[in-house]
Design brief:
- The chain has helices at about 10-20, 35-40, 50-55, 60-75, 85-90, 95-100, 110-120; strands spanning about 20-25, 45-50, 80.
- With about 130 residues, the chain is mainly alpha-helical.
- Helix 2 links the parallel strand 1 and strand 2 (about 45-50).
- The radius of gyration is 14 Å and the shape is globular.
Length: about 130
């Protein structure tokens, strides 16, 4: 779900047979109404990695992230904010949150919801 020039077919192909609780990236699903519905219906969480997606060109620019994340939120798709390749991308979790907030892509409240969800869906048992 992070390959440019696709429309979420990979996300659908993963969810139907595998029924994962979480999917890394999945940003291209924002361009597919069926993927949006399946993600919302199954409660599958997308692990969004903004800097990585920009570096790999899965997302062209921050304005596209505004569309993608806005579409996910409008369609009740659950998401968390994460890092991927922190050393190669020169980022950390604080920078990922700061990037999205300073660009007015997600509000402070939306980021807080994503942070709380990350703890809720963590593989770490408490």
């Amino acid at each position: 779900g992070e390959t440019p020039n696709t429309s979420g077919e990979g996300v659908i192909a993963a969810i139907k047979p595998l029924k994962p609780h979480r999917i890394g990236h999945g940003v291209r699903a924002a361009y597919n109404a069926d993927a949006m519905k399946i993600l919302a219906d199954t409660g599958t969480v997308l692990e969004i990695c903004p800097t990585s997606n920009l570096h790999t060109r899965a997302v062209r620019h921050l304005e596209e992230f505004k569309f993608i994340l806005g579409t996910f939120l409008e369609n009740n798709v659950r998401l968390t904010i994460n890092t991927d390749g922190t050393y190669l991308c020169g980022t950390n979790l604080k920078r990922e949150f700061q990037l999205l907030e300073e660009a007015n892509i997600l509000s402070e409240d939306e980021l807080e919801e994503a942070r709380k969800l990350a703890f809720e869906v963590s593989f770490i048992e408490t």
